Amino acid sequence: MTKELLILQLREKRVVALDASVWTVLAGQFTTLESHDTCLAGELRVISTEAGPAAVEQPKPDRRVVRLLNDEEEVRRFVQERLDTYDRMWDGCGCKVDYYN
Question: Where are the strands (E) in 7-97, listed by range?
Fold first, then answer.
């Protein structure tokens, strides 16, 4: 996959799942705006793309999910919601994250 194809797919689908090895090749082509250690599911990274900001999550060690976000406000809401969910998971709430919606 190329950077251009990923951006095209993000514009069309808004959420794109990738093998971790594919993301490893592409990651250096994007600017990281922020990064958060979830303590449960790897790193939650926010990147800058030509289509807008996007979140990169790690649902499994060998998978990445890239989600296009609309603007800085949505980035803040999304990151806070995810971090709050991981905090509740750490406390044993039994909740799960739906990475693909």
Answer: 15-19, 31-37, 43-49, 52-60, 63-68
